[in-house]
Design a protein that fits this description.
37% helix, 145 residues, 4 helices, 5-stranded mixed β-sheet, Cytidine Deaminase, domain 2, alpha+beta
Length: 145
């Protein structure tokens, strides 16, 4: 799917803003960036933002791609990428093409599984965002991280 030039420019700007600032200090920029990158997808996509010790974004990787209603996420692969990026922390994110912004029980279990796996290599999970066309839900704000 091709994006409009204005959307591409907005993505570049937000990606730069997210990379230069502490992701926890500018959560609005993180939300806007995720909404632009994931909201319009017709299938589920699971992505990870890898952060340095100052919570600046090192890289954002689209790690897994699924169907309309689900995607398989492999904790081992997330740990490998976190180590490859020398990340101190991560922000997990995925979209819900159905439009349901609330995290499912499976989302909660996955978050806890990834949090446990990453803790073994001293990588913190700061948040897990659920992205829809109209809303971005922070699982940390809901007390689920």
């Amino acid at each position: 799917m091709s994006r409009a030039p204005i959307v591409e420019e907005a993505l570049r700007h937000l990606a730069c803003e997210v990379r230069l600032a502490d992701a926890l200090v500018s959560p609005a920029a993180v939300r806007d960036y995720l909404q632009l990158t994931l909201a319009e997808r017709a299938h589920e996509v699971f992505a990870v933002m890898f952060l340095d010790a100052q919570n600046r974004v090192i890289a954002t990787e689209e790690m897994f791609r699924g169907t309309l209603t689900q995607t398989s996420v492999y904790p081992r692969e997330v740990v490998i990428e976190a180590l490859a990026h020398n990340a101190a922390a991560v922000i997990l994110c995925h979209n819900h093409p159905s439009g349901a912004a609330a995290p499912s029980r499976a989302d909660e279990l996955l978050t806890q599984t990834l949090k446990s796996a990453l803790a073994l290599v001293d990588v913190r999970v700061l948040d897990h965002f659920i992205v829809t066309r109209s809303h971005v839900t922070s699982m940390a704000e809901l007390g689920l991280v």
